[in-house]
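Note to self: keep these together.
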Amino acid sequence: EWKSHQTRMEGLWASHSGRRSQIRGFRSQIGGLSSPGVLFYPFGGPDYLHASALFPGARNYVLVGLEGVEAMPDLDKLSAGDLNRGLGGIGNSLRTVTGASYFITTEMRSDLQSTPLRGTLPILLAQIARDGKTVQSVDAVGIDSSGNLTSRAAGSACPGWQIRAGGKNIFYFQKDLSNSGLGDRRILKFVSSKGSPVTFVKSASYLMHGSNFSNIRDYIVNSSTGLVEDPSGVPYRNLKEAGWNLKLHGNYKGAGAPFTNYRQADLADAYAKGSDPVKPMNFGMGYLLDPKSTSIIVGHR
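Structure:
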């Protein structure tokens, strides 16, 4: 079982190593944003891999998604069969983020809920360990209505994990970021308590292009000191209207299936006319993995 797990994980990281090297090379293009006090990664779920590759100097990572925060079982008490199934579920969950650069939520949920290693914590720990960091502590946490970190209580409105590893604080919170889900905005208060964030958005299902996610969109636009995103994040027009200094990378040709209705004509026009600086990319990230059509927007305030 160990040999099988080792072979599976080595294969996943080998498939990811090329893109990870390219992401590290791309850091020179984001103008000093790679070492923020707080890196805010909404809609990314437990994708620590890409956050750490692009923002290695961050002191605090705040990852947000809808995936669960179940406790880890005592591994010593699992049967060999249950442990092997759990490790297989972790491998299956990591398959898309290492290959396609994002988690497929429904597949990840199915992979993990069918094994004893449920929720996001096993996935986070596997990525952190593979990033070469030693985990010092793991705490079940929540956020109170004022934005303060607390011990997790039953029924917490914002349950999560705080993982201390390699001198970093890595937070994951399970939270609906729609206008109705944000409620008292406690998670945004918590992010701001760490300083003005640099925000990273990719593979976000174009949710912030609709009115139901206007509050999180406005927070990113008005409170972030820097932004790195693909076109599925904050619409280009909102950034221009707010006076952001933008640089474009890649060659935007529109949104791929099933999001073709979210093509941004003004963004395509900006690429075509060079109204913002445009630089080429030799790799893809997010939904648009083909380097011929990938797009990354880098913004500074």
